[in-house]
Amino acid sequence: MRRALREARKAELQGEVPVGALVVQGEKVVGRGHNRPLGLSDPSAHAEILALRRAAKKLGNYRLKGCDLYVTIEPCAMCAGAIVQARLRRVVYGAPDPKAGACGSALAVLNHPKVNHRVEVVCGVLAEECAAILREFFRRRRIGVRYQGPGVRGQKTKGG
Ligand code: ZN
Q1: What is the pLDDT of residues 100-110, one digit of tens each?
Q2: How many Å lie between the centroid of ligand 1 and the Cα of residue 14?
């Protein structure tokens, strides 16, 4: 999860909502991603989707059997759908997302009784750190300060 948080910080540096994800097979990271919908002009460019795509490409199979996904926030409905398609073994997430989380918070896409793939879900890993990076991002955005790296004071952006 620490490595997923590192990915989230990359998103933050690019002005994207700080979410990071990793796909792990055994002990090996086979895919990583951070949120990039703005940079890629792609509404599907969530951290989880990008990490799943890289893992599938690397393993040469869209079924990621036996792989686990680590992500800093509870996946949304789109990402939960992709997790089912990829047949992941386990999803480990940090902070719950009461507004859009599809692993039981707002919706229950994973392990829905009508979906036949079962995935183990572990939540709350480093939840406070995962939530704090998001909270801080939105707080700064509200007051119009752009993140410029750790220890650097932000400058006011035009228009706030
Ligand atoms: Zn998503």
Answers
A1: 999 999 999 99
A2: 18
Rg value, the chain, Cα: 16
Angle between helices 47-59 and 77-85 (to 10 degrees): 10
Mean pLDDT of 23-34: 97
Identify which of 87, 48, 45, 50 has the alpha carbon closest to the alpha carbon of residue 67.
Answer: 87
Residue 14's Cβ-side half-sphere holds a number of Cα atoms within 13 Å equal to 16
**Beta strands 90-95 and 67-73: pairing type?**
parallel
Kindly give the distance from the C-alpha atom of residue 49 to the centroid of ligand 1, in angstroms, as a whole number.
7
Strands (E), the chain: 20-25, 28-34, 67-73, 90-95, 120-123
Query: Are residues 18 and 6 in contact, defined by beta-carbon separation less than 8 angstroms?
Result: no
Structure tokens at 154: 């932000």
| Residue keyed to tokens 């940090």 | 94
